[in-house]
Amino acid sequence: MAQETYSINRIELRRLLISFGVNEKNIAILLSTMEKMHRHVNIISFVAMLEKINIPREKMVNIFRRFGIDDVTINSVLNAVDEEKIKAETGRLYEVSLS
User: How much is the pTM?
Assistant: First the structure.
């Protein structure tokens, strides 16, 4: 995936999130988290942040389209997020008992 930068100001991001039905509490959480990261976040982390506030993937795709990100790149990002989740699960032990 080629490195590109997409920018949106705080007010535009707030409006965009409101238009997709995100409540004020979750917007505040998201913006606060981004402030702590000095307002620079990679797309994988941004997806994780959106997932934490329960934004469905369909809405994420539309949000990224509004940023000007093409569908191929969006698909690559979501696939990378899924790969990260799989890697995080590797090595975890689970116990299953059959009675």
Answer: 0.73
